[in-house]
Design goal:
- By secondary structure, the chain is of the alpha+beta class.
- It has four helices and four strands.
- A hairpin with a 4-residue loop joins strand 2 and strand 3.
């Protein structure tokens, strides 16, 4: 299984939370049983306050599966996913950044 960082962003005017039906639909879509049916595990999630942006760290067998899962979010904005890798237990944030930049 691979890790992916997923971002969904939308304009305030298109915020699904302002529509009770759409908000409830998306919350149900993100429920653990539904996510599992798509072959995805959500490891963490956060909404950036005031920016209408959702970040998730998800685990899946491949990126196509993640993109397909995020398809419904395109109705309100722009979903994006990127493959990531877990930090090794000995890594510190500064050493990970240094090794990732090639310095």
């Amino acid at each position: 299984m691979a890790l992916f960082i997923v971002r969904h962003r939308h304009e305030a005017e298109r915020c699904p939370a302002t529509d009770p039906y759409m908000g409830a639909t998306l919350l149900n879509y993100l429920s653990r049983p539904n996510v599992r049916q798509h072959g995805i595990t959500i490891q963490g999630e956060a909404v950036v306050q005031g920016e209408h942006t959702l970040y998730m760290i998800v685990e899946s067998s491949d990126e196509d599966r993640v993109r397909a899962f995020m398809g419904p979010f395109a109705q309100a904005g722009t979903p994006d996913s990127r493959r990531s890798h877990p930090r090794h237990s000995g890594d510190t944030p500064s050493s990970s950044a240094t090794s990732a930049s090639g310095a």
